[in-house]
Amino acid sequence: LRWALPATRSAMLPPPRFRSSTVSVVKRRRSRLSRILAVAVPTCVIIALQIHAAGHFEESIELEASAHGRRMAAEASRHVNHTSPPAPRASAANGSAHHAVQPLPPTQCSRHRRPYHVLVPCSLSVEHQWQARLSYHRYLRLKESDPCSDLGGFTRLLTSPDGKPDLLAAEMPTVVTRQLKRSGRCDDCDHGFPLLNRPWAVRRLLAFHRKEVKEEYILLLEADMPLLAPVDNGAEGGAAPLSPVGVESRALKASKERNETKAVLRRWHSPLREVAPVGPSALLVHKRQLEALAGPWLNVSLSLRRDEAASSALGPLLERWAWSLAAAEAGVAHQIRPTLQAEPEGTGLSEVGLFSVYHMTSELRVGRSWNW
What we know:
alpha/beta, seven-stranded mixed β-sheet, two-stranded antiparallel sheet, disordered N terminus
């Protein structure tokens, strides 16, 4: 302002008879404008740097994912024409939307694909909405960059009070189910525990919307679990019709060490060693097996919630322990894959590129000035 204003001073000042009274006004306005710009300019610079850093962060995630070793085979890339996927087409009949992401013909891939359907149960909360957007964005990026992976379709499994879709149903493939009645003690009530909507929604999806899941396998995630890289479902190490692939949750492992938890689990199943601390997230499972366990998963969840001692001991992990108990009762043994899911805490993980799923659940701290 100091070098710009003198050149225009004569144009800004009024005729001579008013000059003495208005010069002070101009000076005061000029001083006020200088103070405003002194704050606004650094703020704009900081925002621009943050946006630039965010772009580099997403690029670093892509580089970590590429280090996972799941990029498209060189011979397949010569036959692929990468184009932006079309917008999803919403269905008013059941509140679902379908995204036309077409897989490559098997002859163009150097490996035999065993595709799975990505299933993400969500609620109408704002938190679940932005998390679902992030999960779907990561899915599309990985689907486009590696069409020969085992990634199949994608469905956001939404529970709403009236069973009607929200605005996000126009952005991503969505199947809507009516959520459990709030509070209450009936079989279709949530007993004051909204997480019961997860087994409830999965059971209803496989009972009434099974045709939406065309793949034989399902990758069951939570809203806060974006993909870092496609999960490998190869013939060796992948899911089998009677043996799902899971990961031991740090929260469940810590909970299992408590005497109160052990007492509750032993009442529902013995021996205790057969109750794996996996929870169904992340879980790669055959569709028929998930269909068979969805009902017991919900029933055990309701039984645990109605038991005051069990509900108090298991707390927010009740629905996840219900899956482990239902699987143990059915004789299901999980294949444990430690690199399936990253659950960083503290200062994070140095080798996040080794994992396929990122769980945004733990507290992260960097020094004394930043935390998540």
